[in-house]
Known about the structure:
By secondary structure, the chain is of the alpha+beta class.
Amino acid sequence: MFLMRQICYTANILRVTLVYWMDNLVVIDGIIHNLYDVCLKFNQNFYNETDILIPKSLKRLKIDDALKNTVFMNRLIPKYLNYLSSGIGLDKDFLFNLGFDYDFRYRVKSIDTLNKKLYHNCGKDMYMAKILNDCFGGRIILPNVQVQEADVMIKLQQLKDDGLISRFYKRDDGCYHAVHCYFQKQNSWFPWELQIWDQACKKDNYLEHKRHEIERNS
C-alpha cells in the first residue's frame, strides 16, 4: 500500500512538472503571437504613412554610414521613436494588459539612449539591424527557463520557421543570461526585441544591465 501511494505521488509530481513546463511554452507562444500582431500593425501603419526615405535594408547599412545620413538620423529615427512613445498606431492598452496576463514589461528607447548606443559602437564593422534592434524592447520573466532551455529553443525555432520572429539567440554575457528574440518582417523595418529571462537570473540580469548602462555613459 505504501509503495502504491509513493508511485501515485511520484506520478502526480511528474504530471504537475510536465504541465508547469508546458505552460512556459504556451506563454512564450502566446506572447510572441501577440507581439507579432502588434509589431506588424504598428510598422505597416508607420511605413505606409511616412514620406521619409527609408533604407532598403538595415542589415546592409553600417553604423558609420548611418551616422552620416542626416535624413535617417534626424528625421526617420526621431519620428519612429515619437510614434512609439506617443502610442500613434501602437495598441498601448493591449500591451498594458499583457502585463496582467504574463510577467511582461516593455519600454520604448529614448533618442538620447539610442544615440549613445550608436556612438558607443561607432567605428565598429557592424550593421544597424544588430545595433538598432530594440527601439521597442519587451521582457518576460518565467521560472525554470534554463532548465527547460532545449524545449524553449525548439519552440522558438518553430516560431521562426512560421515567420513570427526573424531570429533568436541565447545570450550569456558575464552574469547576464537570457534568450533574445527579434521581430522584423521587412529588412527595412526597425527590429523589435523580446527578452526571455529566467526568474532565477532576474537579480543578476538587472545588475548587468546597470553595469552596461554605466559603461556606455562613461
